[in-house]
Amino acid sequence: MSDDAKRRALAAEELDPSEITTSPDGEPLALQPIWRGDFPIDAPVDQYVARRNFARLLVLTSGAFVAGQAWLAAKDLVRKRRAPPPRITIATLKDIPVGASLVFHYPTPRDRCLLLRPEVKLLVAYSQACTHLSCAVVPRMSEGVLHCPCHQGYFDLRTGQNIAGPPPRPLPRILLTIEGTDVIATGVEERMV
Ligand code: FES
Prior knowledge:
metal-binding; iron-sulfur; alpha+beta; iron; elongated
């Protein structure tokens, strides 16, 4: 029998049986899990909660709290030191005629984005992940919208603004620059409104 089980058996022996509340499973105190011995229902048994166990619990919870704070601080530091967004050539002007759209990946190969050209002089690009639950939005060039088929969300194609349905905010905009005939992605603009 473990030390804790012995201690609880002794505690149970020293009490008047009428003072001991039956545990929900009906098993004797000696067979109960350790936590039930440390936090008993009966006040008389309460005096047997070992100070050492209580101190251990306090140390563990404090340690977990400190570790959590340290992890958050480290994450924040890493985020601040993160490298600037990459410059990636995503297309040439020839690849994207007026009225066309094109899928590319930015800033990582896992991030799908859309390059759109609604007018000769207007090139826009957005993350393809809907801001509701991340379904892929689909351009409807003739209607001037991006449609999310999952829950009928709509975004303005020229601005990426959420205009109907459940999406709570605009699509992240991919910043573009044109050099010669190259279309280059230079960053991601997250927008809350
Ligand atoms: S995931 Fe796009 S509207 Fe729900």
